[in-house]
Specification:
This protein has 312 residues and is mostly helical. It has one domain. The chain has 13 helices and two strands; from the N terminus they run E-E-H-H-H-H-H-H-H-H-H-H-H-H-H. The protein has a two-stranded antiparallel sheet. A hairpin with a 2-residue loop joins strand 1 and strand 2. Helix 6 crosses helix 10 and helix 7 packs antiparallel against helix 10. The radius of gyration is 21 Å and the shape is globular. The two termini are 27 Å apart. The relative contact order is 0.13.
Length: 312
Amino acid sequence: MTSKTLSIGNIHLRATDGLILATLLFFSTLALLFFASVGAWWLLILKNIGVAAVYLLVIYFSQRVNHKFWKFFLRVAAVTLTYAYLFGAVDKLQLILHGRWLDEYVLDMEQWLFGVQPTLWVQRYTTPALTEWMMFSYVVYVPLYPVLCGVIYYLRGEVPMEEYFFALGLTNILCDIGFILFPVAGPLPTIGDLYTVPLDGYVWTYLGELMRSQLHYIGGTIPSPHAAAATVMWMMTYKYIRPAFYWLAPVIITLYLSTFYGRYHYVTDAVVGVAAAFLALALVPSLVTLWDRIANGTPPNENPATASLQGK
């Protein structure tokens, strides 16, 4: 991963910052181009501009803080909260291409492949204890997001932390684009009346349902952002905190299952989410190289060594 920055005035942008700002610009452009299909499109654009301004402001201050913890805290808060905003911002853009939900294709494919609807079939095994474990794995992903970042930062340094951020960001953005290319409403909005067994549980189940009601929206389904981001987090522990890779194995594997057990996603969503994560991880080196060239002022198609010789 690179430590190169692109300076704009007194603000030094890293690759993750460039990715976030480019995505805000991309979403705003889509809202403008498809304004007839986007409710309050102008408001979405204004919000994107506001988020970009606040994000740059936080970067400015974080780069002037000398205390290690506060520098880390501001960085994590800015990046994590902006990723969360982008997940919400894509909501209004999901139907700009197709104009409707495409769940029937997923349902038909899974029926053909499995002979049943997996998210309905799994009801025969639904118990409060199992639901609680599934919901724990689904919800604990949220605190793991910044905690793993902190562990990587304090054990391995700032550059590995930025690689973690960049890979997570790219994965989330691939998921956001997927919501637009193939909009799927999800199991509960589509076949919710077919569920006959309630998801009873305890504390973690309550938190999982709270997340569903307060943070989720119809859509945001394929690829599964939960499965995708969890895969990146898991792979980053393999690279930088190897023991944690094995400790987290039961949780991450259960998280994959919890996406359709908890009726958040179809099985297809989780599979595509894992694939999106590995695609993002494969793209990271090339995109980082591109960022290095931009930061160095080298045209994307020009050899950096050639540019250096010409500079002499």
